[in-house]
Structure formats: structure tokens, C-alpha cells
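Notes from hallway chat w/ T.B., transcribed later so I don't forget. T.B. wanted the structure written out for a chain they're using in a teaching module, and asked if we could keep both sequence and C-alpha cells in one place. Agreed to drop them here.
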Amino acid sequence: MNTSALLDGAVTVSPLPGSRDATPQTQISFLGVPAAELSDVTVSGSRTGPHSGRLAAYSQGDGASFQPSRPFAEGELVTVRARLHSGAGAGAVQPLFDQFQVAHQDAISSTPETIHSGSPSEIQSFRSRPGLRPPVLTVTASSPAVAPGDELVAPYDGPGQSGPMILEPGGGLVWFKGLPRGTSATNLQVQQYSGKPVLTWWQGDISVHGFGRGVDVIANGAYEDIAHVRAGNGLRADLHDFQLTPAGTALITAYDPIYCNLASVGGSSDGAVTDALLQEIDVRTGLVMFQWTSVDHVALGESYELAGNSQVGWPFDFFHINSIGLAQDGGLLVSARNTWTVYDIDPATGQIEWQLGGKHSSFAMGPGASAAWQHDPRELSPGTFSIFDNGASPKIHDQSRGIVVSLNSQQHTATLVSQLTREGPSPPLADSQGNLQALPNGDWLIGWGQVPDLSELSPTGQLLFDAHFPAGDQSYRDFRFPWTGAPAHPPAFAVAGGSGGASTTVYASWNGATLVASWQVLAGSSATHMKVVAQGVRTGFESAIALPAGTAGPYVTVRALDASGHVLGTAPAAARLEVRGRGADASSSVTRVRDRKGLTGRSSKHALLWRCIREPTTGALTAGAAKTRRIHRCSARYRISRTVDTTAGDGPTW
């Protein structure tokens, strides 16, 4: 238990010597020496025999992974030998030896969490972006004294679509990436990658077992995915954390249910445990540089969960890793919900240096300093940590709270410095998830996790901002960060009205654009001959601009301007088609026509479309609903969409 991964005092190896929980698809990681200093790597399974493979170097130049050409067998013992050519002297060679056991995998269900559909009033809709259906956010408290920056959230399991979402300081929508039903996102935040600010989040499937299986995403300021970070060793990235490091690596979580004898903790001798893992991934190569597992380092008896309640189909989740952080001394800070403990881990050896809270705390816990079922510990300054204390489930505290704890390493004491709560008739008690973010101006942003709320409190605890998603929604973590987005895709617009004497209104939006201050509407006889006919200030995610009576067309477009009047982007021009008989859906009697491949203006496809609509040869248009059906049919024939929704980078809606 808690064995060192530092092999022969020279190189950090994963799986570590004596490990009992390796996966059949594991690679063997050698971290801390240049790949050129490793040679003669041989790998053999006690049942599968010798394994060929390749030694692939990390892009940081500090190691390599041996990637076997075929999987190992469950239950077998694997022996690894290699030679390390050290720089201690000419021809100095050090033999390396490692043995580990491959675990028997427990194939649990992938049953998803329940989705709470809610009501239509709890879902936002936009004429210019009909494919986006984010949940409504209701702001109940807002102050101009909030910290600078936008709110970054990722609601899931509630009304509308799940997906990463950016909100203005006052709660208005800036950007939303709607995901397919059954796919969720968590942990949207701003990080640094290759010296530039990026958006990062996890997306994938969340099961009833309380962890995720998916992929971590890195996107640039244009909302283009620039990297997908996947877990290695046959696993899938979990939802709980994704931290980028200055070295170009990523710290991620993963879960691995395996068979385990639980008799020593009151469970079945033929039971199963959910092993929790930390992996450091080389973002550029995808290789696993380091792996730490809970089963190898923490006793099952440390858990506040009951092994007797588990079964093979519902394994003993004794640890439940839910955050990873880089401590200021270079260590790894790991939180385990179900042991009520924060661990400080030596990244060279993988050994636990100290633990805060739980059954075997390294520190005497002062009044109010103990957390239960906690999330998101972060080091604020040397020896001072913020923690989101859930206090449930089951209920230990009356309400969830944020706490700041100071550690005295000489006296081995932990002292509560401050706590943050949201007071009121129904104080939040989050059974799961949640975070506490220290903001640069001294404020605190609290995401209440399973309780679909987010709050900002001043240093003295005054409530400055409070907002709520619909019941049934969850947002694993919520943040506030400065962010500038300049989408690669152009703006979108819709035209409504203009029939039977009604006024015509243009609805303009640009998903993710943070610098738009106003809009202009242009119209003219062709896509290349248009002039400004109306303008208006940006009034939210979607702005409505009324057109003057008698505006000439038939072509129309919109363009976005910044606060100085500079053009930021222009939507593709579209010809307007009069469409009657649509009823209340989108309330649009004038819509746009756009080729799916981006052809606009006097394109040949538009000419063919118009000719098709005017059939038969008399040139008379079919009236009413029949005319609408003909437009749909002709659009499909020539692969033309009636929705101008050019959204490269966040998913087209046709």
C-alpha cells in the first residue's frame, strides 16, 4: 500500500511496482529521463508471454511509453525489464525491473442519468439560431460590484440541450454549444495552452454510477477545437477534472471498475470496487506519462461509503476522485469525496505526503475545519486552501458552504480561516458536485453543483450575484473568467414579418462573439449590391432590428460592429422568400435561402430553386400550405437550406 513508483531511484514507472489494478490495455510509462537513455525494453505476461511493441517519446523530452502491440490477459502478472543509460559516466548502465498485476475488469452498466425535460418556458429559443435550445437562467440578484469576467457554466440533465455555456456578467447568453441528447458537458473554464487562453471542458456520457466516460476538449478563441485529450490505458476520460499544465500536459481523472475481495470491509469476497485514477497525458502525443490509482495507495477502510451496500453491478465506490490540482510546491492535490480527504501526492513517487480530513488526517482539525463529501480543494497561498464542503449526502451539515483552511505543518493543525454560505429560507445543500473559485478582486464564485444555482459573494459574504437554472438541471462547476471570443463562423440572422402589411424585423446573432456592440442590416438587388438600411444596438444574444417600410430587396444580410464602429463580421447574403401558412412556428413569413455548402447571391443553385418553385411552366406560384411544401421539396432537391445558420465550430443546424 502506498508503494513508490520511483523505480531504482531513477525513473517514475507506471504501473508502479507491485500494482494490482493495471488494465489489459496498459502502456508502461517511464517518466523523468530522456527516451534516448532507455533501451532493451522487454515485456512479458505470465499467461500471454512476450509482448512486442514500440517505445514512444514524450514531446517534453522527459521520458517515453512502451506501447504493447496487443493487450495483456486479465489476472496475469506482467514483468518489465529495461536498461537505463545514465549520464553518470561513460557506458554507465542501470537495469530497471518492474512487475505488476492486471486486474479483472467489471463490466458495469452505462445507464445514463435521468433527463428532466421541464417545460417549454424553461428553454430559450432564437429565430436566428433555431438549433440552439439552452435552458433559461433566472437571475435573482445582480450588483455592478461583481468581479470582471463572464460566467462559464455547463448545465446538463435539465430542460433544453446540455452543453458548455458562457454568460455575460449579468447572466445573458454569450455562447452555447448544444450537444446531442444523452451527451453532457462539465467543467467549462479558461486555461492557458501554448501561451494562449483557451476554453476547456469535458463532454461525454454520465451514468448513474456517478462518473463520466468521454473526452476532454481544448478550443481556441474562435471556438475551434484544437485538441482532444483522451485517457490512456484503455480507459475513457472522466468528467471530474481536466487541468492543463505549463509543460503542455493535462491532468485528468478516470474510473475503472474491477473485481475485488471486499470481505475485509464488510462486503462480498466476490465483489467489485470502482478504482479512481489520475493520469498525466502528453497533450501532443496522447501518451500516458504518469498514472496514480486509488487502490494502490489508499485502504478500502478509509471510505465513508459502505461496502456491504455494493454489488458487482454496482461496485464499491470507496474513493471517488473529484479534483486534481497543482500544489505550489510541485505536488499533486487530489480530492476524494468518499473518504472526506484531500491528499498531497509526490509526483515523482506517487506516494501520499499528507492527508487533510477523513479517518486518518495528518492534521488535527480545528472547529469548523472538517469537510464532508467535499469537492474542489485549491491552494490559495502556501499552506492555505479553499474547499467546497458539500456536507451531504447523506447529510452531515445543515448546508453546503465554501471554506478556507490554513495548515500548520509544524504543529500539524488545520484551522478554519473563513466560511462562505448563501443565507436564506432554503440554504443550498448539494448532494454532489460544486466548486469554490477565488476571484482576483477578493470575491468568491460558488457553483452549487447538483443544486442548479451559482452565486458570487463579496469577501465579507455579501451576495452580489445569484442565478438559477430550472429544477432538474445540474452544473458540475461554475466559474467567472475574462474571455474574448471571435468566432470562426459568421453571424446568423432571420427575417420575420413583411406579409399582409406587417412590418419586417431582422433578428441577428453571433454565437460566442464578445465584442459586438451594434448591428447593421444591408439590403439590395443582389448579394453584391447592398446598402445599409437599418441599424441597432446589440440587445442580447439575439437582437431585433426593424426595417423601414418599403425596404428594397430581395437580398439581405447583417454585419456586426464593435464599440468603435469597426466591422467584425458579415453574414452570407440571402434572398428572401415569402412563405405563408407557417403559423406560429418561428413567426416568420419572410425567411432566407442559403446553399448548404455556402453558395449565396446569384448562385446557380438559387436560380434552380426559384425555377423549381415556379413550376409548372405557367409561372404561377402555388398558394398557401402547398407552396410551403413545394419550397421544402425544392430546397431538398438542390441541397439548399432555408435557414441561414453558418456555425462552423459549433455545429450546423440543418
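Follow-up for T.B.: The CA atoms of residues 11 and 372 lie 36 Å apart. Might be a good example for the class.
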